Amino acid sequence: MSATPKPTFPVFIDDHYFLIEGIVTGIVLNVATSASRIVSAQDGWEERVKAARVKTASDDLTELELMAEVAAVSPSKYGPEAEQRREIRRAIARGDYDEEREREDFESMYGLKYDPYYEEPYEEDELPSDVSYNTDPFFGDRIYENGDMFFKEGKVFYRKGGRPRMKFFWD
């Protein structure tokens, strides 16, 4: 009698390799896409802040000093600025928060001029229609061929470069 070789993998994995591989790939792709979306939005914000700093800064600032200024005005979940942002969200939820105050708070908090081009939400019918685009099948974000990117948040879209609205799950 010849002995049958013992399988090196458990039989379940050997028989269902493609099923397990597909599930693992799907989960990893979902997590990686979510993280990439958030990082892309934050990069757009940092580029906008840096461009504003370069316009107002004198020529003797180094790249490191410019990045320090960007970090100083970038949102953090700690400290008095975070408490101020939470208070603003509560006021908006209560309905006692007006647009003029929002603009003033934005300018004082981030050191940037409020720009509705970036900060105001877009309805789907307000998005550019003369340029072709790709739609992310999972999140619904739109990436236009001219480089514009709009992140879908609920039923509205926000332009890349606006203040970060999306957070990692640990934030």
Can you describe what's shown?
- It is a single chain.
- The protein has 171 residues and is of the alpha+beta class.
- The protein is 51% helix and 9% strand.
- It has six helices and four strands.
- The protein has helices at residues 11-15, 17-56, 63-73, 79-94, 99-110, 116-119; strands at 133-135, 142-144, 149-153, 156-159.
- A four-stranded antiparallel sheet has the order 1-2-3-4.
- The radius of gyration is 23 Å and the shape is elongated.
- The termini are far apart.
TL;DR?
This protein is an alpha+beta fold. It is built from six helices and four strands.
Describe how the helices and strands are arranged.
Layout: H1 11-15, H2 17-56, H3 63-73, H4 79-94, H5 99-110, H6 116-119, E1 133-135, E2 142-144, E3 149-153, E4 156-159
Antiparallel strand pairs: 1-2, 2-3, 3-4
* H and E order: HHHHHHEEEE
* Major sheet attributes: 4 strands, antiparallel
- Name the structural class: alpha+beta
C-alpha geometry: elongated
Proportion of strand residues:
5-15%
Average pLDDT confidence is: 78
Helix content bin: 40-55%
* Ends apart, CA distance between termini: 63 Å
Low-confidence stretches: none
Q: What strand order characterises the main sheet?
A: 1-2-3-4
Could you tell me the number of beta strands?
4
Helix tally equals 6
Q: If you compute it from the alpha carbons, what radius of gyration comes out, rounded to the nearest whole angstrom?
A: 23 Å
